[in-house]
Design brief:
This protein has about 375 residues and is α+β, with helices and mostly antiparallel strands. The chain folds into two domains: about 120 residues, Phosphorylase Kinase, domain 1, CATH 3.30.200.20; about 240 residues, Aminoglycoside 3'-phosphotransferase, Chain: A, domain 2 (Alpha-Beta Complex), CATH 3.90.1200.10. Helix content is about 45%, strand content about 15%. It contains twelve helices and ten strands. The protein has a five-stranded antiparallel beta sheet with strand order 1-2-3-5-4, covered by helices on one side. A hairpin with a 5-residue loop joins strand 8 and strand 9. The radius of gyration is 21 Å and the shape is globular. The N and C termini lie far apart (about 50 Å).
Length: about 375
């Protein structure tokens, strides 16, 4: 997709119910999937910011269903805050700006889907974890988000990416990609494939528990990176959960596992020096404290028992996804250098090894947090 210039962004804004005069606009953030732009409007002498997002309809193949999910979820969460008398309820949940005909999105002349949010001021996201307090606040915000959606009325949410966290299906896709080897890369990754396939039985554990009725389906975020929770500039509190495209039915353990995956290691997701990839126990303790403070009354015994395992599973799954994309020619994740997805996959495998070695210590930490 081409980058809209300021005139294009002005034209996009004309389709939404945005008052005032368009001032400026440009690319914003560091997302891998959608294209995000910040625009500024002059309203009653003040500059007011909004977020335009062009939805990647190759990844999210049913944008109207996706936007129906987001409308329902954001409206429900906002109603929870209003019922509690929260004075800043408007910043505690993303707020959609409707199109001029009242829809949640706009379809432009090129066939692209656009949405617009109110810009959440006074808070920001962080790509790199700096303190255990940030981990605690992120985990509390995600847990609270899950808890607020336990009584969402109406029909089951749409699956915006079917089988998104179905790890056995991800494993089958990897096996097929390795057999086809369309880019001639499979000979480079024998060790990685052996590591992953040795854990094939573990990939089924949570789904088996769900089928047995021991782990319930809930509404989950499914992409709980640190930078999907906005932290207040003054208090440091997690105030708003963002990037809601993958909010859909799932298992809450997927969300806790992804928080473990994205916060425990001090190394970047694509770190080439795998000796830097390790699970930090102080960060795990902070995640456990924050998450259980928001969800302990909600979780079943089996959910609590598998919190530590969830990090191993989701990290392995993410490694599977990176490796599959590497074999298929880097079609899904944006890459910025040769073998970028292979570096990412190897980093995930290194983190799985560290998580496995820390499993006993993490279980003891959970017992201490709940004591």
């Amino acid at each position: 997709m081409t980058e809209p210039n300021q005139l294009d962004l002005h034209d996009i804004g004309l389709a939404f119910a945005l008052p005032g005069e368009f001032i400026r606009g440009g690319l914003y953030g560091s997302g891998h999937i959608n294209d995000t732009f910040c625009v500024t409007y002059r309203q009653n002498g003040q500059d007011i910011r909004y977020i335009h997002q062009r939805i990647n309809h190759h990844v999210f193949t049913n944008p109207p269903a996706l936007m129906e999910n987001i409308q329902r979820v954001t409206g429900h969460v906002r109603s929870k805050w209003l019922a509690q008398g929260m004075p800043d309820a408007a910043t505690r949940s993303l707020t959609l700006i409707p199109s001029k005909d009242g829809a949640a999105y706009v379809l432009d002349a090129t066939g692209a889907y656009w949405r617009t949010y109110v810009f959440v001021e006074g808070a920001s996201t962080h790509d790199v974890l700096q303190t255990p307090a940030q981990a605690r606040e992120t985990a509390f915000a995600i847990g609270q988000f899950q808890a607020q959606l336990t009584d969402l009325p109406g029909p089951r949410l749409h699956e915006t990416i079917p089988h998104f966290h179905n790890t056995p299906k991800r494993l089958e896709a990897l096996k097929l990609a390795a057999e086809r080897d369309v880019c001639g890369r499979a000979n480079n990754i024998h060790n990685e494939l052996n590591f992953i396939f040795a854990r094939a039985d573990a990939t089924r554990r949570l789904l088996d528990l769900h089928r047995a009725g021991r782990i319930p389906e809930r509404i989950t975020h499914n992409d709980t990176k640190l930078n999907n929770v906005m932290l207040d500039h003054v208090t440091g509190k997690g105030i708003c959960v963002i990037d809601l495209d993958t909010v859909m039915p799932g298992l809450v353990l997927y969300d806790f596992g992804d928080m473990m995956r994205t916060t425990l290691s001090p190394a970047p997701e694509d770190e080439r020096d795998r000796s830097k990839v390790t699970a930090r126990m102080d960060i795990f303790e902070a995640l456990a404290e924050g998450y259980l403070a928001a969800t302990d009354d909600m979780l079943t015994p089996d959910e609590r028992d598998h919190l530590v395992f969830s990090g191993q599973l989701i990290t392995l799954e993410t490694g599977i996804r990176f490796l599959t994309d590497y074999l298929e020619g880097d079609r899904y994740f944006k890459t910025h250098r040769p073998d970028h997805n292979l570096d990412r996959a190897r980093t995930q495998i290194a983190l799985v090894k560290s998580l496995e070695s820390h499993e006993d210590a993490m279980q003891e930490c959970l017992r201490s947090v709940r004591a």
